[in-house]
Design a protein that fits this description.
single chain, mainly alpha, 9 helices, 73% helix, globular, transcription, DNA-binding, Homeodomain-like_sf, transcription regulation
Length: 192
């Protein structure tokens, strides 16, 4: 994999403030929003997000003038982290790299559902994020297929839909979700 930036990387970099203190607040707000959305969905309180980040509501609005700006920024940041994870994992054995990335993807789906629900798919950022995700994760599947450890009769879109379907189900806890994902991935893996 190349180290060239993905389309979403450029979006994230353009939105992030350059001053250290402002960037620190921005990052704290994204982290707090991600946690709040995972816990409360798209109805999470902006005041709660600001409190969790340790900043005032004015700082939240200065960074994210609208709720939509916050949703888009959280979404882009999550996808960017997934893309960077694909780059970092690319040096591992093909099956290990693919499954490690898919486990990261499964965790990301919790935030994605809340954000997607709030934006109704109307955001221009979604296409850049989708393109970036395919550009980053697709080669992991292709490499596993070329190594003979992943089924050749599926494409990356099939794989993402399978994982997304699994993560859309309610689980008792993360361990159960991980176990079910592992079972599904056994169906993707080929025996040599």
């Amino acid at each position: 994999m190349t180290a060239t930036p993905f389309p979403v990387s450029e979006i994230v970099a353009a939105r992030r403030p350059h001053r250290k203190d402002a960037a620190r607040n921005y990052d704290a707000l994204l982290t707090a929003a991600r946690e709040a959305f995972a816990e409360h969905g798209s109805d999470a309180s902006l005041e709660d997000i600001a409190r969790r980040a340790g900043v005032g509501i004015g700082t939240l609005y200065r960074n994210f003038p609208t709720r939509r700006d916050l949703f888009e920024s959280v979404y882009a940041d999550e996808v960017n982290a997934l893309c960077q994870a694909a780059v970092e994992l690319a040096g591992r054995e093909p099956w290990e790299a693919l499954t490690a990335w898919l486990n990261r993807f499964a965790g990301y789906m919790v935030t994605k559902r809340a954000v997607r629900e709030a934006l109704d798919g109307e955001s221009d950022i979604f296409q850049s994020c989708r393109d970036s995700m395919y550009e980053a994760g697709g080669p992991l599947l292709e490499r596993a297929q070329q190594a003979g450890v992943a089924r050749a009769d599926m494409d990356f879109g099939d794989l993402l839909r399978m994982v997304a379907g699994i993560t859309a189900t309610a689980f008792e806890n993360d361990a159960q979700r991980d176990r079910v994902l592992s079972i599904a991935l056994d169906g993707v893996r080929t025996t040599r």
